[in-house]
């Protein structure tokens, strides 16, 4: 998450370009040729520029303040009425409202990708009605429209609708050709498309997009977005099972993540990566250092993941498998009850590993049966379900081994990744 005021940065940059153009126009003589005299030498011209800047800034601040109420009003309407309202009422035709709508889209895409798609489409409608003269020109609006398309494509990706998502990103790239006013939005599109390329297992393309996005975020000095880029790159290496690179990228992200939620995401992912690659003691140290980050958030998902991390560390250190069993059972149950079946399945598989190490085939069979039942009831990802059935069948034959569990966990994790937006 970012501070809301940061998201007006795109508009601030394009307005600056407009003012620079206005200054150059004012410094030209009547023949249209550049003049040696700067507008800075003309007090009246300078006053006019400052008055223009202050007026535009005040208007943008007012539009920004009105955006939440205006969006709520639009969302209370049927879809057709929304579009008609945007087309006929000027207060719904601002860059700020479209940008705020995309912020909401970004926040809900994890748990409600259908609503996220609606918000992205609404943002496109608003951007299509906005006056270019009020927001830095048609190039700025094209950038915003392209970003809205990318957000819609990302919502489709989260719903595992890869073909429509790919098509939407291609349309976003075509729209981008009319833009180019704001590098931030361009890099955000790269970040989103990288997730799609990862899910399509086009790993070189995904990594190239992340490299490009990171260069832009570094140039813009946006440390949080640079950290998100590193997290996404680590996720690609996680799917590729290159754990050393996962750890390297997450360690590089640690000092960059300034937002508390993002900082927790980096630390949590790094704890798991360290534990899985045989560095459980380091994972335990980082877990202790990260307690203050976990405790800042008391939502069910964060609490469950904290318990899960502690259980995984206990299992990997191996000094108290009974403690690992209790913690992983608690984490898996909480995740299932809170509506996070993919996380519950992975925590359950970590628990199954404890039972497999003890040779408790009956417990393996019980947990696998529970996970399969949960997936069938929720009509979850068929690939993950098939992987869980492999464990169940092996447990029935008393042939469960750690190699099989690692293979199944990898399949479930790959399915889970396809359900996650860019962090």
Structural summary, described in words:
The structure is a single chain. With 423 residues, the protein is an all-alpha fold. It has helices at residues 9-26, 43-75, 79-88, 95-108, 113-129, 138-158, 162-176, 183-199, 203-219, 223-239, 243-253, 260-276, 280-289, 291-295, 300-317, 321-337, 341-358, 361-378, 382-396, 402-417. Helix 3 packs parallel to helix 5, helix 4 runs antiparallel to helix 5 (113-129) and helix 8 (183-199) runs antiparallel to helix 9. It starts with 8 loop residues before the first helix and ends in a 6-residue tail after the last helix. Among the domains are: 1-28 and 35-134 and 144-149, no CATH class; 298-423, Alpha Horseshoe (Serine Threonine Protein Phosphatase 5, Tetratricopeptide repeat). The chain has 20 helices and no strands.
- Note poorly predicted spans: 1-8, 21-31, 418-423
Percent of sequence in beta strands:
under 5%
Protein structure class: mainly alpha
Averaged pLDDT, please? 82
Amino-to-carboxy terminus distance: 9 Å
Report the count of strand segments: 0
Count every helix, treating DSSP H or I runs of 4 or more residues as helices.
20
SSE sequence, one letter per element: HHHHHHHHHHHHHHHHHHHH
Helix content percent band: over 70%
Gross morphology is elongated
């Amino acid at each position: 998450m970012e501070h809301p005021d940061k998201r007006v940065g795109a508009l601030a940059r394009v307005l600056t370009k407009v003012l620079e153009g206005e200054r150059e126009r004012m410094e030209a003589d009547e023949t249209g040729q550049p003049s040696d005299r700067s507008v800075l030498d003309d007090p009246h011209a300078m006053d006019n520029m400052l008055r223009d800047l202050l007026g535009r800034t005040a208007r943008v601040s007012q539009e920004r303040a009105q955006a939440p109420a205006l969006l709520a009003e639009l969302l209370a309407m049927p879809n057709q009425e929304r579009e008609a309202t945007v087309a006929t009422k000027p207060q719904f035709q601002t860059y700020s409202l479209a940008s705020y709508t995309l912020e909401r889209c970004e926040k809900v895409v994890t748990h409600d990708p259908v609503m996220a798609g609606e918000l992205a489409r609404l943002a496109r409608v608003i951007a299509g009605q906005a006056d270019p003269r009020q927001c830095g020109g048609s190039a700025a609006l094209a950038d915003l429209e392209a970003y809205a398309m990318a957000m819609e494509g990302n919502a489709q990706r989260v719903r595992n609708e890869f073909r429509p998502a790919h098509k939407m990103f291609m349309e976003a790239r075509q729209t981008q050709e009319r833009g180019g006013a704001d590098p931030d939005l361009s890099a955000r599109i790269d970040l989103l498309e990288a997730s799609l390329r990862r899910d399509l297992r086009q790993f070189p393309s995904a990594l190239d997009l992340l490299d490009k996005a990171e260069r832009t975020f570094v140039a813009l000095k946006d440390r949080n977005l640079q950290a998100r880029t590193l997290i996404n790159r680590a996720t690609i290496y996680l799917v590729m099972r290159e754990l050393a690179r996962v750890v390297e990228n997450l360690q590089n992200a640690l000092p960059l993540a300034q937002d508390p939620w993002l900082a927790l995401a980096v630390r949590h992912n790094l704890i798991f990566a360290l534990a899985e690659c045989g560095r459980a003691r380091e994972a335990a140290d980082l877990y202790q250092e990260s307690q203050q980050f976990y405790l800042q958030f008391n939502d069910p998902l964060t609490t469950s993941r904290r318990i899960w991390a502690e259980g995984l560390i206990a299992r990997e250190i191996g000094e108290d498998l009974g403690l690992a069993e209790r913690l992983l059972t608690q984490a898996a149950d909480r995740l299932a009850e809170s509506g996070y079946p993919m996380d519950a399945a992975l925590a359950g598989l970590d628990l199954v590993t404890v039972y497999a190490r003890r040779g408790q085939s009956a417990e393996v069979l019980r947990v696998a049966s529970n996970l399969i039942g949960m997936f069938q009831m929720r009509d979850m990802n068929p690939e993950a379900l098939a992987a869980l059935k492999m464990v169940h069948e092996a447990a029935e034959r008393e042939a469960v081994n750690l190699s099989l569990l690692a293979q199944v966990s990898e399949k479930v994790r790959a399915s889970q990744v396809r359900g996650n937006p860019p962090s």
